[in-house]
Write a structure and sequence with these properties.
Keywords: Calcium, Hydrolase, Metal-binding. By secondary structure, the chain is of the alpha+beta class. It folds into three domains: 437 residues, Alkaline Phosphatase, subunit A, CATH 3.40.720; 86 residues, Arylsulfatase, C-terminal domain (2-Layer Sandwich); 191 residues, Sandwich (Jelly Rolls). The chain is 22% helix and 20% strand. The chain has 18 helices and 29 strands. The strands form six sheets. Strands 7-6-5-4-8-1-9-10-2-11 form a ten-stranded mixed sheet. A six-stranded antiparallel sheet has the order 19-29-20-25-26-27, with no helix packed on it. Strand 21 and strand 22 form a beta hairpin. The longest helix has 34 residues.
Amino acid sequence: MSLREYKPGNTFPGVIGRTVDKSSPAWPEPLRSKEGTPNVLFIVFDDTGFGQFGCYGSPIKTPNLDALAANGLRYNNLHTTALCSPTRSCLLTGRNHHSNAMSCITEGSTGYPGGNGNIPFENGFLSEILLQKGYNTYAIGKWHLTPSNQLSAAGPYDRWPLGRGFERFYGFLGGETHQYYPDLVYDNHTVKPEKTPAEGYHLTEDLADKAISFIADAKQVAPNKPFFMYFCPGAMHAPHHVPKEWADAYAGQFDDGWEAYREKVFARQPEMGIVPADAELSRHDPDVPHWNSLSAAEKRLYARMMEVYAGFLTHTDHHIGRLLDFLKSIGEFENTVIMVISDNGASSEGGPTGSVNENLFFNNVPESLEENLKALDKLGSPETFNHYAWGWTWAGNTPFRRWKRETYRGGISDPLIVHWNQGIEAKGEIRTQYAHAIDLVPTVLELLEIEPPTTIKGVTQSPIEGVSFAHTFNHSTVPTKHLTQYFEMMGHRSLYYDGWRAVCPWPGPSFAEAGQFFGEAISAETLTDLDTHHWELYHVASDFAENHNIAADNRPKLIEMIATWYVEAGKYNVLPVDGRGVQRFAEERPQIAVNRSRYTYYPDTQAIPANSAVQLLNRSHSITADVEIPTGGAQGVLLAHGGNDSGYSFYVKDGKLHWVHNYVARSLYHVESRSSVPEGRHQLRFEFKVTGQPDLAKGKGTPGRAELYIDGKLVGQADVPVTTPLALGLTSGVTCGIAPGAPVTPDYEPPFKFTGKIYSVIVDVSGDLIQDKEAEMRTILARQ
C-alpha cells in the first residue's frame, strides 16, 4: 500500500512511496484560461457628459472613440450614480454604491453602513474574480476607492488596488491629481514622474505608456494569457491640463457660446440615432447666464476654458488610440472586450464662472473675473488648476438638464461604447435598452461564461445586484432586463421603473429656483416636505430629456414610485438621506493614528496624504527642523504641504531661512530671515501665532504672525492678514526634505531637495510657542 493510499483525504493525484523510484510525481496544474478567452478592457472617463464625445454628437474630435463606436455599439440609456467613487465601485463589483458603502466619494464618507467608504470584501471585484480564472489584472490611472484615512504608507493596504485583485497598479489613489505633477503610486509605493513638465511630461501619456508596458511584459512570456485592464485617465476631471497646441487647435470654435454648442450637438444627435427623433432639448438652466448677456471679457475667458477642455479630451483620445494601436500590433485587439464609459455627467465644480484654481471652490473663496483674465494665457498649463464654467457643464450634458452630483439625467446618463469584433456582429448600431453601471460586471461574466464565485479568499460573496445586457449585443429590439433602479446622491433622489422616472431634486430643480446653494443638511421635516410636495414624474419612454413633469396628473403613479424608492433604499442601505455638502467633507472620521499634538517627520520618506497629515489651518503651531548645515551652506525644502493651488513651504535658500504661505494662488505671504543660517547642527523653527478669527463662509482663514527662529533667536517676522481656510493643496501631501509637486512658490523649482542633513522635523500644534519678550518688543517697535 502506498503512503498516499494510507492517508484518506489526501488530494495529491500521484503516488508517494518510501523512495522516489517507488513514487509517481504530480505537479499542480498552472492556472490557465480556456484557449481563445477574450481580454477585457474598461476605459473609464471622469466627468464626461452625454454630449461630449464626438460619436455622441459633440464637435470635439475623438477619432479613436468614434472608430470604436463605428465598429461596435453605443448605448443611449446607460446610467451611473452621479459621482465618481460610487460609480467606480459599481463598475468593479456589480453592486449598488450604497451596498458598497460608497454613498459619496471616500472623502465624504459617513458612519453608516451605506456610506462608510469601506467596500465590503463580500462584494468581490471583477479583478478578483478574473484573477481566479487565469487572467492578468491591471489597474491604470485613477483609483479613488480606498478610504481616505488609509491612503498613507501606514496602510492598511488591503483596499488598495493590489489588495482587491489587481496584480499591478500605476496611477493615483485620490479623486484628482495635477496632470503635470501627479501624485503617483506604483503598486504599493509612491514614485515620481520620470520627466518634468519642461521635458514634456503629461500624466495621460505616462498612463498609456505603462498600460502598454504592463500588457507587453506578460504577453512576451505567456502570449495566450488574457488580461483585464481597468484604464482610468485623470481626464476629464479638473484640472483641465493639456499642452497649449492641443487647446489652440480649437481656437475660436466656441466663441458663439454654450447655447450654440447645445443646439449644434442636439441637431446631430437625432441624425446619429443617439436620441429619439421626437426628443426635445431641455430648458435653459436657470443657474446659467445667457451667453449674449456676458461681457466681451467674460466671453473670451469662458471660450478659452472650453478650448482647453476640448483639447484635453482630444489629447486623451489620442493616447487611448496609442493603447488600441498596440493591441492591434500584437494581434489582441479583435478579441478584446472594450467598454468605454464615464463615471458621471459633466462636472459643475468650476462654479458659475469657472476657475483658474479649483481650490477656490473648496475654500469658499469667490472667483474674480479680473484675476482669472490675468491667467487666460496660462489655462491648461502647469501653473493653473483650471475648470470651466457651469454653462459648459450644462452644454456638455446635452440634451439633458443639470449635471454631476444631481440625479436628473444630466448627472446620471452617460456614454457607453462596447466593442468586441470577435463577439459582436452588429457594427455602428445604437442600443436603447436601460442599463446601469452595476450591469457591466454581470455582462462580462456572461460573455466569459463565468459563474459569480460563492467565495473569494474565503469570504462568502453577496449576490451581484446588476443584470447582464449581453443579450442586446446582437439583438437591437430585445427588452432590457433591468426594470428598477434607485438613485441617491447627497440628498438628490430619483427612481427608474419600466420607462418612468420620479425625481426629487435637492435643494431644488436649480439653485436659483431653490433660493439656496448646494450643501445644507436635510432635516426630518424637510424630508417630509420633499416627499409630500417636491417629487417630479417623467415618462422617459416618451420624454427622453425629462422636459414634462406630469406628477400632478399622475398622483397614484407618483406615490407608487416614491414607495418603491423607499423599498429600494431599505434593500440597499441608502438611509439616512444626507444632503450636506461641504459640511459632510469636514466631518471627523476615524484615523489610523490617535490624535496628538506633536508630529515627527523624516526625510527620504513618502508624501503624507492630507487626510493623514497634521492639520495646521486656523491654529497656532510651530515647525522645528533639526538640521546639519555642511561647509558652504545648504538649501532646499525642510517641510512643505500643497502646490501652486495653495499650501505652505518652510525652506532654506541663498543662505536664508524662508517660510511662504500660498493663499489659494491669490497671494503669497513670505517671511525671510534677517541673518543667514550658519554651518553646523542647528534648530530652524517657524511659528504661526493666531491673532484673529477666521471667516470660513467668506473663504478667509485665521490671520496671524509668522516668525522665524534659528536656535531660539528670532530672525524674521511678518503679519499674515489671511490664510487658506479649509483645504490646502488638492493633490499634494506633506513632504519632508523635498517638494516634488507643483511648487507652492515660484521662489524655487521642484523638487528642491534639501542639500544638508535633516534629522527630523517636528510639527507642534499644542500652542506651546516661544515666549520671547525681547522679540515681542522688537516686533512692536518694528510696527511703529
